[in-house]
């Protein structure tokens, strides 16, 4: 059942659902070829990838999910919403689809969820593409005050400062005042969160950042398992949330990593520059395939 607010011209995909313990998880699976799996951040949903999917699904199989609590997935009231739980759900979807040779695209909060999967199954993940994601290994670098158990990095601080704001307002602020994204599209984000007049404090994403630093640190310690996966980082420099020093950390994290800067773009690169992003992603996949073929011929 598609909700009546959904703009099906913008988002013309067939909805699929996977029954999980937490509820129904919505995802789309378009095109065929090498699988590209896209994980959204907060507080967005697979809609953010719609233009990339339209372009990339011509040659690739594109899978984009809505985390539980977001988009067209169920929004159970009493479920945990901790990133660990999201990561377990994502793992179930991957298990269900039985994908190999995945190119993983992660944005924002989607990074730890995607990278947790890669750490558990490095043999399935061929490439990683990151769009403005924050690093979460904070415990060793910054000492927060008592409040820190609620705040994980810039996203946590931002959400925490907005707990009394309505979700509609939160979306506007995330896109930024001078956003080139039309109201009509911004509404697709607001409505997907439930009631636009509801307070942010009731949102899955505001609750889920509590007390997760232990999990992030466990992931960070396991990073050796994925440091050799070829990685493309696309970065919108006007991002108010994720500052450029996070990018520096990622550069040091991956051994083979290419970085492209978008000077005039903010946090939602794939909204503002879908054509460029799609082009870079498909070239990256092509190049890595070539390298792999070469390497195999030499053996």
UniProtKB/TrEMBL annotation:
Residues 35-274 form the AB hydrolase-1 domain. One of its GO terms (molecular function) is hydrolase activity. Keywords: Hydrolase. Coiled coil: none annotated. The keyword Acetylation does not apply. It comes from the Bacteria. Gene3D superfamilies: alpha/beta hydrolase. The keyword Isomerase does not apply. It holds the Pfam family Abhydrolase_1. This is Alpha/beta fold hydrolase. It comes from Pontibacter aquaedesilientis.
């Amino acid at each position: 059942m598609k909700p009546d607010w959904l703009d099906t011209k913008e988002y013309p995909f067939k909805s699929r659902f996977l029954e999980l313990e937490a509820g129904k998880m919505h995802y789309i699976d378009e095109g065929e070829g090498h699988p590209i799996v896209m994980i959204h951040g907060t507080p967005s949903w697979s809609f953010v990838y719609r233009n990339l999917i339209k372009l990339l699904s011509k040659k690739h199989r594109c899978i984009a999910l809505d985390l539980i609590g977001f988009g067209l997935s169920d929004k159970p009231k009493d479920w945990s919403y901790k990133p660990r739980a999201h990561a377990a759900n994502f793992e179930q979807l991957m298990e269900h689809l039985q994908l190999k040779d995945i190119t993983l695209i992660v944005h924002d909060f989607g990074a730890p969820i995607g990278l947790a999967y890669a750490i558990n199954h490095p043999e399935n993940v061929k490439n990683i593409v990151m769009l403005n994601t924050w690093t979460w290994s904070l415990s060793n670098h910054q000492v927060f005050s008592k409040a820190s158990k609620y705040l994980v990095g810039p996203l946590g601080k931002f959400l925490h400062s907005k707990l009394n704001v309505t979700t509609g307002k939160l979306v506007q602020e995330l896109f930024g005042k001078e956003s080139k994204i039309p109201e009509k599209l911004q509404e697709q984000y607001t409505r997907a969160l439930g009631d636009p007049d509801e307070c942010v404090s009731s949102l899955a994403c505001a609750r889920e950042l509590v007390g997760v630093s232990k999990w992030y640190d466990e992931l960070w310690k396991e990073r050796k398992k994925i440091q050799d996966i070829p990685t493309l980082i696309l970065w919108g420099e006007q991002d108010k949330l994720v500052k450029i020093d996070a990018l520096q950390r990622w550069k040091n994290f991956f051994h083979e990593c290419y970085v492209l800067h978008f000077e005039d773009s903010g946090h939602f690169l794939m909204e503002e520059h879908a054509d460029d992003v799609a082009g870079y992603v498909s070239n990256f996949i092509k190049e890595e395939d070539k390298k792999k073929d070469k390497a195999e011929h030499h053996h």
